[in-house]
Every structure is written in structure tokens, then in C-alpha cells.
Write a structure and sequence with these properties.
Structural class: mainly beta
Strand content: over 45%
Number of domains: 1
Distance between the termini: 29 Å
Helix content: under 10%
Number of strands: 9
CATH class: Mainly Beta
């Protein structure tokens, strides 16, 4: 599982590069016949906090999927699990998991 860190007040764009997962001629799409691109974020108690953590996205930027995280949710030491469902033009859906850790940088 990949890991990203951000500070509590930081609005951070998190991007996931999908180029290696795409076959020749394949592309990322917002939806296909099997579903739509999405992100679900849960806290350490498995509570869905997606609407508090993600303020926009997921969106496609070339071969990357990205989402903007909120700078007004999460405190130092909080850990969130992000489950990304990424849709492709050949009707596949890839699942990528990212751990988001809130870290207050001192100094």
C-alpha cells in the first residue's frame, strides 16, 4: 500500500500514476460499463470520512488520477485509508489503496 503525508492545514493534491497499468491504446475514463471512478476514505475506526477529506476529485490528468484533500480536516497523527477505484477504457476497474497520514512538521 502506498503512503502519502500531509500537514493538518495543508490542501494537498494526491495523484496516482497509472501509465504502467495501461495497455497500449488504453486510457483512463471517468466511467465504463462496470462502474465509475471513485475514492472512499475511512478513518481508523472504519468510518467513511470521504466528504470531509476529499474536496474535489477524483479527476483524470493524462495518465494520472488525482484528488484534492482538505486542509480543514485531520489532526497530527491521524491515519486515513483511501480506496481508489480507477476505470479504464477497456472496461477494467483497478483498485489502488493509499494510506494518508497527517503529520505536523515542527520547526
Amino acid at each position: 500500500m502506498a503512503q502519502e503525508t500531509k500537514q493538518p492545514s495543508e490542501y494537498k493534491l494526491i495523484a496516482w500514476e497509472m501509465e504502467d497499468a495501461l495497455a497500449s491504446g488504453e486510457s483512463l475514463v471517468s466511467s465504463n460499463s462496470n462502474g465509475s471512478m471513485s475514492i472512499v476514505v475511512t478513518d481508523e475506526d472504519s468510518v467513511d470520512v470521504t466528504s470531509s477529506v476529499i474536496i474535489s476529485g477524483p479527476t483524470i490528468n493524462g495518465t494520472k488520477v488525482q484528488a484534492m484533500t482538505s486542509g480543514s480536516y485531520g489532526a497530527d497523527g491521524d491515519v486515513f485509508d483511501m480506496k481508489w477505484l480507477i476505470t479504464m477504457s477497456d472496461d477494467q476497474i483497478a483498485e489502488e489503496d493509499i494510506t494518508l497520514v497527517i503529520v505536523e512538521e515542527k520547526g
